[in-house]
Amino acid sequence: MPLFQQNFVPTYLIRVYAPNSAGQTTRSYVIPPASNRDQVDLQQDIFTLPRQEAATRLNEHFRCSLLFAIQYGLYKHRGNHFVKPDLSKISLLLLDTRDVPEGTFIKDLEIMETFSAYSDPKVKKNLKDLVDFRRDNRGYYFGEYLTQGDVDIEGKCVVTNMQRLIDTGLFELIPNFRDESKWTVWSNRVLQLRKPFNTPQDARTTIHAEVRNAMAIAVACFGGRWVFPVATMLLALEPRKKKDPVIVKDEIEQLQLNKIKTDDDYKLSEVKQFQSLIDDTFQRVTGGEVDRLNTKKQKADPSATSKDVANDSLMKRLGELGL
Questions:
Q1: Which of 122, 145, 161, 319 has the most CB atoms within 10 Å of its CB?
Q2: Is 111 in contact with 200 (CB distance < 8 Å)?
Q3: 145 with 13: CB under 8 angstroms?
Q4: How far apart are CA 234 and CA 256, in angstroms?
């Protein structure tokens, strides 16, 4: 049973975890700390709980920003932690939410604002303090989504690890991640990496080698139907020119691009660019425009269970373009 009210959720969410992470995460399920199979009351819809109790349970996160997720993985390895797991032990899970029941996820700020008034004032840095911090104008919003109950993710996700991303060319594609002295910082480092997005006119033209590198990482670390969206996320980690022909003419590995949704908060520069690259590719291939307002309102088609089935009109257009 979904535990949250109906809401808009991005198509792809990311979870970074290690052996010492709170809760349990495998390729089949995610059990957040707020959930316990042996305690029935902890399986209740969070909206039915006493407000102060509910406020203490909101501590499990998925993320829609690959930039934020990768920096977090590096931070878990080198940051100020008592346990510093090896990079090969830090997993990055990518989940396709189209196959997850509606209401499973909710944007963290939406639900935190609901319960922040019930935060325990005796607790230092309580929920209300966190909401105020996230809402200020310094950019500390990172596109995080919460789930209270167990989530069945078998067949809906793919998992890789930080070492594999690095070994297959992450630092060659995005050199800014290479500096290990920056791995000890998390949120502030993400804000630094976003600064170039403030001057999009300075974005350089992408070269074919970058596209191929992004594709190679996506194939080696994720594979299958995940290749195109992951490669696009990787390219979106740095500013790119809009309608870049090198990107939009390159090999298409995934269809139904107009149905991919993202968090549209203006602070998530790299997530906005991911959506822009997806839309540019869709428009180049189909010749049509993406109605983002309508897409955001649409419910997932329950009959569309296979993401590998080709769309006839899209395939026809690909052939015409010689792609």
A1: 145
A2: no
A3: yes
A4: 19
